[in-house]
Specification:
With about 400 residues, the protein is of the alpha/beta class. The protein has twelve helices and eleven strands. It has two domains: about 35-200, no CATH class; about 225-375, Rossmann fold (3-Layer(aba) Sandwich). Strand 7, helix 10 (about 260-270) and strand 8 form a beta-alpha-beta unit. The longest helix has 30 residues, at about 120-150. The protein is globular.
């Protein structure tokens, strides 16, 4: 049996908090078409019927993504989870991501204007392509950001180009799934892809362990993110409005790499709803989760040089730190302490809360300013990942 997401609040209340009847209907529809991992899933018969609506290029691209189980076609498979074995396969991943991006660009180059995106299944099949492009773009963006934080010499024009396209990919994905509007996505420059392929740092190969909650070195890793489930992010958007109202948050802070998408996604969702809720997004390369980062006087050491000017704007502003999940709460606690050197108005939250640990918590559930909406059956998640990737 597939592990389940357990929602800690009433789904109808979360969705209704978004205060848009058309979007509410869409979201309730969407919930039925996403699997536990956050990928789009359709009954196989519907997949076969609706994939015919696209050009051969798009059909062929979608065929590379599918994973069929028990008469259901899942559209996130190994092509999405590009893993590597320690250092031996990093170069393969470096080459693979630009290749997959260019294949998606080519398949969408002549996106048919007559495609009926009011048809839900057709819309979702196209969204699967946008989902993969978004993921690959963020893999590259994460590596650029990591290299900048570590002080590597990076062409800032390449970085800014990657950042801009990555953010646009997030906007395009949510516009498509929530409103049925599709645009031809932007193409990364050859220079930025080449630099990623040859020079950039890659994340350390660690995987959360059942026996060691803080993580241990293992053979492989999903490259960048933990929170990439669109439904959970959308529902958290409702939770944030429900508990905080429409009062503007000046800065959303997301610790990398698990929370990379969250701030940009929330901003995109709110803008689609016509709500001016989130100002700027700041990514922080800081984690107590197996990376050994130590608390400093402020967050400056964990921000790239070209982003440090933003910290001057932090002073006295309203800040919300949102992580992908919370275990002991150490990362959130320490980030809050560092951000308090800029402002007395610092909130903390996480989209998921894990409950199956015995360690003393630095942050309890009640201390979170915006409560997580769900928790995962974490052990089942890890065990399934190990089995699917032949790590046992």
């Amino acid at each position: 049996m597939e592990p389940q997401i357990i929602y800690l609040q009433d789904l109808e209340e979360l969705v209704s908090s978004l205060n848009n009847k058309n979007i509410e209907k869409t979201i309730f529809n969407l919930i039925n078409f996403f699997d536990y991992a956050g990928g789009i899933v359709l009954p196989s018969s519907r997949f076969k019927n609706h994939v015919k609506m696209f050009s051969p290029k798009i059909q062929n691209m979608l065929e590379t993504f599918i994973n069929t189980k028990e008469d259901k076609t899942h559209l996130r498979s190994k092509e999405y989870y590009l893993n590597f074995s320690c250092n031996n396969e990093i170069n393969k991943v470096r080459q693979k991501i630009p290749e997959k991006l260019n294949e998606i660009y080519d398949s969408l180059e002549h996106l048919e204007s007559k495609i009926d995106l009011s048809n839900f299944e057709t819309r979702l099949l196209l969204a699967a392509l946008y989902d993969h492009k978004k993921h690959y773009s963020m893999s590259i963006f994460n590596s650029y950001y990591l290299s900048l934080v570590k002080g590597d010499k990076i062409d800032l024009k390449n970085f800014e180009s990657v950042e801009e396209i990555c953010i646009q990919d997030i906007v395009d994905f949510y516009k498509l799934v929530l409103k049925g509007e599709a645009v031809k996505p932007q193409r990364h420059t050859k220079e930025s892809l080449d630099f990623f392929s040859k020079e950039l740092r890659m994340p350390e190969p660690t995987l959360p362990s059942v026996s060691k909650p803080l993580g241990e070195p293992t053979a492989r890793k999903i490259i960048i993110r933990e929170m990439d489930h669109p439904i959970q992010i959308i529902l958290f958007g409702g939770q944030l409005l429900r508990e905080d109202g429409t009062k503007k948050i000046d800065f959303v802070v997301n610790p990398l790499s698990g929370a990379l998408e969250i701030g940009y996604a929330l901003k995109s969702i709110y803008e689609l709803l016509g709500i001016d809720k989130i100002g700027e997004i700041l990514l922080i390369k800081y984690s107590k989760y197996g990376e050994g980062d130590e608390i400093k006087e402020n967050i400056e050491p964990f921000v790239p040089e070209n982003k440090k000017r933003k910290l001057q704007q932090f002073k006295g502003r309203r800040i919300l730190i949102i992580d992908d999940n919370t275990f002991t709460g150490n990362t959130l606690y320490e980030l809050k302490e560092m951000c308090k050197s800029y402002s007395n108005n610092v909130g903390i939250s996480a989209i998921e809360r894990r409950t199956d640990i015995d360690e003393k918590r630095k942050i309890e559930y009640e201390e979170l300013d915006i409560k997580p909406i769900s928790k995962l059956r974490y052990i089942e998640k890890v065990m399934r990942y190990i089995q699917e990737n032949n790590l046992a």
